[in-house]
Amino acid sequence: MTDKQQPETSLAKRRTEQGLRVAKRIGSRLKTKRFWKRAVISLVAFVLVCTSTMYGIALWYQHGQAGKPNQLGVTFIPSYASYLGVDPQETLDAILTDLDAQQLRLTSYWDEVEPTAGAYDFSTLDWQMAAAEKAGAKVSLAIGLRQPRWPECHAPGWVDTAAPVSRWQPALEQYIAKVIKHYKDSPSLVSYQLENEFFNSFGECHNYDRSRLVAEFDLVKRLDSEHPIIISRSNNYAGFATGSPRSDINGISVYRRVYSPWVKGYFSYPFPSWYYAFLAGAQQILTGKSSLIHELQAEPWLSDGQSLLDSSLSEHDKTFDAAKLKANVAFAKQTGIRQIDLWGAEYWYYRKTVLHDSSVWATAKTIFKQ
Question: Considering the chain, what is the average pLDDT of its residues?
Fold first, then answer.
């Protein structure tokens, strides 16, 4: 080999090696593109299959519910009526007679029923049950530590629920037993709601121990096996109640337009009505248990720190007004879930009598008369 041939050979070798490296890089990039293309296609296919399955279950559930009558009710809490500045007994009477609501969810707050250890006061709940019985209305009675409205957990001052549960659970169960024994023979009582949205971290609560919920469930069943027990979940939660305790009825809450601190403004949940039909249908398939809407948004949801009493009607209307009440009820009916309890009836009466705007009350009256 001549001296001239040797550099030419080395140059050719380098060019060949460089070409191989370039080809390798191109091949690697093509493999990466093919991988991501397959990944995207697989993800889209997975989403389509999941959505189609969910929608199919929703249609199956809605078809199975077709023809069944809707049962509309309201939650009523006398202390909330008092907070709004309206008379609780007058408000409940208007709900039962003027609106003709035939289904109530009532509360038995521990701090009101047993404000002092061992001393029970059923007077407030007694007049509510008597009003329901007189009107022939059905009652779902909330029991337990966690019940509707702030601060969610309603322990009396003599109980420290931040302490180990062994120190206060016996007292809690004794109070639950007293409530059940006092009302289980009422002709209006149709169900219990045990521990409202038990696993929801919202509120001033400290204990989310499932074993406590199981113990309370077993206690209620021992004391009254005739009335079904509702256990509810938090808003738009995507899971299913398949663990212990296995409730007789599954409660779902539906809030559609709220203030969100994450977006720092008002926000509408994007879920269609069939999404809730899917939740109810899947629950029925997995556990054989029926579902109800235990809270349908029917009052404003204001930003943190804002009070209904100190805010304007125009601010209220951003998340709730007469048109939204009508739309929310229509939305709830579209889910196929037939038992629907509306949340905020005390506010309707406050808006009518204190704020002198009867639009929501009149719309509610039309809805309940249908």
Answer: 92
Asked whether 337 and 252 are in contact (CB, 8 A), the reply is yes
C-alpha 341: how far from its chain's center? 11
- Per the CB < 8 A criterion, the answer to whether 162 and 209 are in contact is no
Q: How confident is the model at residue 217 (pLDDT cuts 50, 70, 90)?
A: very high
Domain boundaries, the chain: 1-67, 71-369
- How would residue 370 be classed by pLDDT, with cut points 50, 70 and 90? confident
Determine the pLDDT at residue 263.
84
SS3 76: coil
Share of the chain above pLDDT 90, in %: 81
Summarize pLDDT for 224-240 with one digit per residue, the tens: 999 999 999 866 666 78
What is the distance between the alpha carbons of residues 49 and 192, in angstroms, rounded to a whole number?
A: 38
**What would the DSSP string read from start to end of 181-237?**
HHHTT-TTEEEEEESTTTT---SS-----HHHHHHHHHHHHHH-SSS-EEEE--TT-
List 6's β-bridge partners, or say none: none
What b-and-e string marks burial along 318-337, b requiring 16 or more CB atoms within 10 Å of the CB? Answer: bbbbbebbeebbebbbebbb
| pLDDT tens per residue, range 13-57 | 666 666 666 566 766 676 777 777 888 888 889 989 999 999 999
**CA-CA distances (angstroms) from residue 286 to 104, 168, 279?**
28, 34, 11
Sign of CA dihedral 25, 31, 32, 33: positive
Cα(26)–Cα(47) distance, integer angstroms:
31
Positive or negative, the CA dihedral 180, 186, 189, 190 is positive
Architecture of domain 71-369: Alpha-Beta Barrel (3.20)
**CA angle centred on 93, ends 89 and 95, rounded to 5°:** 120
